[in-house]
Amino acid sequence: MAYQPSRRPRTGGRPNSGTRSFRPNRPHNRRPQQNKRFKGAAIHPSKFINRATVTGVETPYAATHQFSDFPFSQQLHGNIAAKGYITPSAIQDQSIPHLLEGRDVIGLANTGTGKTAAFLLPIIEKLSANRDLLSVLVIAPTRELAQQIDEQFRDFSRGMKLYSTLLVGGANIERQIAQLRRGPHVVIGTPGRMMDLMKRGQLPLKTVTTLVLDEADRMLDMGFINDIRMIVGQLSPQRQTLFFSATITPSIQKLTEDFLKDPVTVSVRTADTSERVDQDVVVAANKEEKLAKLLELLGQDEFEKVLLFGETKYGVQRLSDNLEKQGISSVAIHGNKSQSQRQRALRSFKNNQARVMVATDVAARGLDIPNVSHVINFDQPATYEDYVHRIGRTGRGTATGKALTFVEHR
After folding, report:
1. What is the homologous superfamily of the domain 67-267 according to CATH?
2. Which of 143, 162, 208, 217 is positioned for an S-S bond with 245, CB 3.0–4.6 A?
3. Would the CATH topology of 45-57+272-408 be identical to that of 67-267?
């Protein structure tokens, strides 16, 4: 059934009963005809309704190792322990031994399963022994994901005198060039900024001995395939390549065949995101009613940490400002924000200083934010694939998430 608030809002008033459910009358794998009763019905409302079929009571993964079992240096073990890591996740448990052996690895894992640590820890261990400059290249689809990888690298390598440089758009390119000239051990960045620096002759890649392609499926979705091929074409074929993706499609398969040598495939994918998330719709007649119902929902105690999606940069900022005026702590993340502004907004949301983060699709791709209670699509996504990416920000690990999508009724 359509979403109904579970209790009266903190702001007072009765829950609005104007939500309704749409019963699917055809299989989900067929594209339905546009329903003329609903505005902007590129995706039929029935696609936004689904009860989670996977609960949080799945059998926990039984790891064959503890982190203390891996042959890491004493300093690295200390940094791992300082972050509270004891038992590895499935992708960590199964891929780290192969990575330490120097094998190429294809890692197939859901987002939010710990794959960043899975590839960073063996890389840091390798660097602690040889300390080669500009020897590791990590390519990620978005600024935010690249930033998160860089932060984890700094945490795990603390006190080891290993240095990284972050290459992303929205940041000062001259400063990035200066950092590259100082000779970092690890370069982490997005394809677009890396291509800019390559064209300027400022990103030497011949010394790279380890390549990481993280969230490869999303990089292809975002149109980076040609950039990736050009970047990888500059690398020595005598390298270790680590390839992580949530899905394996014909395009992904072709990339693995072109980029990797005799790879080991580690697949720990569990249920699809959409199966882990309770999904429903909220019907509104116009924008004013949408905003009123949104405020009503955010008045519920259960909406503890909410990721709210809008269609445009300007609309996202206006919506965030409006929530702030209503006394709801909110931050916005979109393409008009500088990199430092985006990082501050993300940090505020992660640290629970802001209860709501309003975002566009591009800005939110690749984000790893723990404990998101709800995803709300204030504006509908353009494609069903975008919808799945959006709702994948909740229901991480074995948790069940909740997603609501506003539908405008004529």
Report:
1. P-loop containing nucleotide triphosphate hydrolases (3.40.50.300)
2. 217
3. yes
H or E segment to which residue 282 belongs: strand 277-284
| Domain residue limits, the chain | 45-57+272-408, 67-267
Report for 16-25, 31-40, 343-352: range of highest mean pLDDT: 343-352
Domain covering 45-57+272-408, topology: Rossmann fold (3.40.50)
The CA distance from 270 to 55, in Å, is 12
At 358, list the tokens. 């309003």
Q: What is the pLDDT of residues 81-99, one digit of tens each?
A: 999 999 999 999 999 999 9
Neighbouring residues of 87: CB distance < 8 A, sequence distance ≥ 6: 63, 66, 67
Query: Could you give the percent of the chain with pLDDT greater than 90?
Result: 61
Q: Which residues pair with 356 in a beta bridge?
A: 306, 330
Q: Which of 396, 338, 341 is nearest to 367 (CA)?
A: 396
| 186-189, strands of its sheet edge to edge | 164-167, 186-189, 136-139, 210-213, 240-245, 105-108, 264-267
Q: Is the pLDDT at 36 greater than 90, yes or no?
A: no
Res. 19: pLDDT tops 80: no
* Dist CA 122 CA 148 (whole Å): 18
Helices (H) and strands (E) in the chain, counts: 14, 13
Mean pLDDT (the chain) is 85
Q: Tokens representing 127?
A: 């660097």
- The whole-model pTM stands at 0.70
Q: Where are the alpha helices (DSSP H) in 164-221?
A: 173-181, 191-199, 216-221
